[in-house]
Amino acid sequence: MSKRRVVVTGLGHVSPVGNDVASGWANLLAGKSGIGTITRFDASDMACQIAGEVRGFDVTQYISPKEARRMDTFIHYGIAAALDAIKDAGLDDIAGLDKTRVGVNIGSGIGGLPLIEETGVDLMQGGPRKIGPFFIPGSLINLIAGHVSIIKGYQGPSYGIVSACTTGAHCIGDAGRMIQYGDADIMVAGGAECAIARLGIGGFASMKALSTRNDDPTTASRPWDKGRDGFVMGEGAGVLVLEEYEHAVKRGATIYAELAGFGMSSDAHHITAPNAEGPARGVQNALRDAGVNPDEVDYVNAHGTSTPLGDANETNALKIAFGDHARKLAINSTKSMTGHLLGGAGGVEAVYSILALHHQKSPPTINLFEQDIEGGCDLDYVANTARDMTIRVAISNSFGFGGTNGTLVFKRV
């Protein structure tokens, strides 16, 4: 059975650097950080007091205030990014669209943590009668896909994958396969997250995973730099419209890129400590799926979280997967500006990878003041300044707790 080709025809995005694709991309190219002191709650007693918060977001541009009150913020972000991607793709303008052939796969790594936290407090203080009837559907991860399907009447597959920080990439890759093997013609896919809550920040801080550079938030996320001391939490959503190639061409759709390959692997090593062989295997599987040779890849949107172990490990994985060609890759971490969106990271970084390919520009890795060459971080990380360059093939890496890995391969059409 020959696989059908899958292309990207719509982009949607909410992040700390912008609440739409155009502003987010412009801020990335300008090297503008979205990291600041936490305003969502009083974090003065916490080890980490900084995060990449979404600012100026108005969910009522997408759904009614009444509906918005019935769901956690991660669902707000996912719905907004999905509806923007659908609008960008022009799906509502397709006459006679067969909605039984349109599906949604948007996941989250953690889901409704703020709502769970708030409801737990209400329960402890006021008893069971304080638990609202919309608590459960307001915090379930698959309800992003559920709401988008209901709003748009899409009757194809509706689900959300949960795989920690690889969630967004896995959702996009799996949705692509739904199209490849004929289960859908169009899929709306990506990831969303809103875990900037006392439980979320406190939990990651207790693992010593977060940066504590509280006095200088904008430079706290510094992938591959000698001074990196942990990741910075971000929030938001990134969603793509994926479409079967002939279906897109027939209707004259704008095609941003082809989703040429998807690879997965497991470290089978440790729940949090990385090893290089697993991610390398995921990259190799993705390139094999795409039918792309390593030396055809020009750009890598890296997982690049700004952790001492993780950044060096990903560099080693790229060396394993690409061999000598690793030194010719332009590698960047947009997390230096957005922070780490956890389950939403693979979604927003897929958007950025596609835009890099579409515009032939690599965003910078900001805050790379002193590259950690002695620590093994000795590749080209597009330090501090965006770069005009030829990009034939771009890949986006996502790695998650439990040793789960995902790589997406995009190429020009």
From TrEMBL:
SUPFAM superfamilies: Thiolase-like
GO molecular function: 3-oxoacyl-[acyl-carrier-protein] synthase activity
Pfam family, one: Ketoacyl-synt_C
Reactions that this protein is recorded to catalyse: (9Z)-hexadecenoyl-[ACP] + malonyl-[ACP] + H(+) = 3-oxo-(11Z)-octadecenoyl-[ACP] + holo-[ACP] + CO2; a fatty acyl-[ACP] + malonyl-[ACP] + H(+) = a 3-oxoacyl-[ACP] + holo-[ACP] + CO2
Alphabetical UniProt keywords: Acyltransferase, Fatty acid biosynthesis, Fatty acid metabolism, Lipid biosynthesis, Lipid metabolism, Transferase
Residue ranges of every copy of the Ketosynthase family 3 (KS3) domain listed in the record: 3-412
Function: Involved in the type II fatty acid elongation cycle. Catalyzes the elongation of a wide range of acyl-ACP by the addition of two carbons from malonyl-ACP to an acyl acceptor. Can efficiently catalyze the conversion of palmitoleoyl-ACP (cis-hexadec-9-enoyl-ACP) to cis-vaccenoyl-ACP (cis-octadec-11-enoyl-ACP), an essential step in the thermal regulation of fatty acid composition.
Family: Belongs to the thiolase-like superfamily. Beta-ketoacyl-ACP synthases family.
Name used for this protein in its record: 3-oxoacyl-[acyl-carrier-protein] synthase 2
Organism: Chitinimonas viridis
Gene coding for it: fabF
